[in-house]
Here is the input.
Amino acid sequence: MVTVIERKPSPAPSGPVSAAETARRKEAGGLTHLYKPRTPIHPKLVHGKWRNVKWAMLIFTLGIYYLTPWIRCNRPGNLPDQAVLIDFAHARFYFFFLHLWPQEVYFITGLLVMSALALFLATSLFGRLWCGYSCPQTIWTDFFITIERLFEGDRNARIRMDAAPWSFDKVWRKIAKHATWLMIGFWTGGAWVLYFHDAPTVVRQFWTGTAEPSVYISFAVLTLTTYSFAGLMREQVCFYLCPWPRIQGAMLDKDSLQVTYLRDRGEPRGPHKKDDTWEGRGECIDCNQCVVVCPMGIDIRNGSQFECINCGLCVDACNEMMDKIGRPRDLMGYDTDAAVAARACGTKPVYRPIRPRTIYYAVALTSVTGLMLWGLTHRAEAYANAIRDRNPVFVRMKDGSVRDGFTLKISNRALTPQTFMVSVKGLEGATLHAPGGVSGVTIPILAPADSTRGIKVFVIAPPDEMRRASIPITFTAVSPEISATARATFQSSMEIDR
Amino acid sequence: MTKKPPEVEAEKPTTGHEWDGIRELDNPLPRWWLVIFYISIVVAIVYWILMPAWPGINGYTHGIRGQSDRVNLEHSLAKLQFLRGAQAVKLTNASLEQIETDPQLQSFALAVGASIFGDNCATCHGQGGTGGKGYANLRDDVWLWGGKLEDIQHTITVGVRSGAPERTTRMPSFGRENLLTEPQISDLTQYVLALSGRSKDQPAVNRAAPVFAAQCVSCHKADGKGDQTKGAPDLTDREWLYGSRPEDIREQITQGRGGVMPNWGKRFSPEIIKALAVYVHVNAGGQ
Here is the structure.
């Protein structure tokens, strides 16, 4: 008798197969991919009004980003002199004349709400101005394409080079391009960390290898994201990562100004020979210039679409062409869908910048801005908080009086030291006592500049068998310049002696 | 993947072992198992070289990394001492009053005091320091041995009835040692109650007056206010270490109980005791 256990290979799976598996099999067979492959876009250089606006915005916004951390601003004492600084180590945010504590983070929230509302308003009026001119993704991509053009030439040269076999010329140009991109990414990541530390100090620490690990990590992450977002992914960030192109559908309507192909003038389109008549045809000569300059790789003549960032480069390209063939400009331009439709029907276009939507956004923006300004001007310079002892809740003294212990925290947000006179309201005959033999109805507490002082404070109430077990009290801290109050409860009990 | 033809079992090599007609095939070990096995051997050898590993007769192999939990503990203790460093030095040099009034030193002392108190004192005095029956309440203004900073520091250092030469006084067990008779103790209980104005039996109070004068005044004083140098409590206030009811007082006169507190001076360095004294003083409201 011989018994042998033999492992048999499992049979090939039969029955239904998942979609992912099907895609994988097809891929293995060289048929298709699970994800849509990227179609390379080679935008052509264009000259014109909107291109110049974009150059100006590029220089302006990059200038703000790279130079802001170097602006100095005098502050008293040992406070940092960097005008814009997010100081995580000391939990402070400095912005020129303003310095915020972590508890005041609602100002940042308010700023974000304001930005969102401003974005809504601008979009419903003028389309995606943000996407076209000031979004960092657009700015850096534009910058990176400029670098690409510098090394590899304009559109046609780039297409030729990408199709050509590898050669020394192609290799060095590609290496130089990627190296320059990485260099820009390097400076972008480097500038980012300057916002969180004193700029000259952290630059010195960075190069001597003594900076904190967080500096190197943020620097490396920002370098790589800049390189990959602006260099490799480009328009895919807008298509697949950014929610805003999808949200804007809710902001735009037929009365929003946006980059539009004036279909009423352009159609029917077709090639035009020099001596042909312009009668009975549209002015679009189908030269495709609007398509080749588009950084998003779309044809704007198909109408408004979510990929369009409203940058106006196609407008410049079209105008250039119209000048060449001697037709009037602005076959493409900032216009509304309603105006195009009206002209197509032969009626006079009506522009309606004031619509329920824009009124609503404007009112919301004004009220939030007003609220923020009010909050900023009425910002409390002092803040107090009383945390009562939980163990013991209260102590009965030998003369029958009752004493509660509190940790009183006084935040002095002013930039000078303040002596607060602390008293308590709501408890008859109460006296205060602090360590170091400080006693009285009112006691002085010194709080250093821009810091929180926590101090043990005892509230002593005279003997009173009829006192309620829990009495709301209010601590009041008043300095010559600023003041704050803190609410608490005074606990006692009518329990008889032990 | 090409499919292998099934092998005929008779052609497979065997180990030559056979039991009751069952032969063992000489199958190779799985590759992954072997790889892990050899890696484990290498790791073990590296471990023996680096770390303490082999027991010997007079000890063990130490390994070249010098790893030792005991040494690590010493290192971290030294590190802790280094971290405390400057502040600990200040604690040593500053007076108790200076520690309590300086905001920085005070918060350092309170932090040190809180952790020491929680680990060592809270067992008897309670986490909140309010004590219990037989254990002094450290939060109120009643002090058996004095509530000034120096008094507290001294009490912590020498303890109470701890075997140290100081603070050895104790209350006699008047009942258990038959120093007083049962009726005398009853009358004395009424006298003690009368000191805080709670007796309704004036004749008993009158009867006990000479007994109190003879037995109790040496420590509790003629007015019953007690003596902090002897740890004798004030009998006129509302605070009672062993209870305020008449039967509690009678029990205490009978038994003469007295607490024991260790002399922490043997265990803690002077600056730790200073921090602890400041912690207790601050949290008691300070006398």
User: Anything to note?
Assistant: The radius of gyration of chain A is 34 Å. The interface with chain B takes residues 1-4, 6, 8-9, 389-392, 395-400, 403, 405, 433, 435-437, 446, 453-456, 458, 460, 497-498 of chain A (CB under 8 Å). Residues 33-379 of chain A form one domain. Chain A has a mean pLDDT of 87.
